[in-house]
Amino acid sequence: MICSTMRSYSKKRERNGAAGKIEKSLCFLTVRPRPGDQTKGLLIAGKTVFPCALGRGGISANKREGDGATPLARMRILSGYFRRDHFSPSVSSLPLKPIGRDLGWCEVPNDRNYNRPVKIPYGASHERMMRDDRLYDVCIVLDWNIRPRHRGRGSAIFFHLARPGFTPTEGCVAVTERTMARLLPYLTSRTVLQVVR
Question: Whole-model pTM?
Answer without folding.
Answer: 0.89
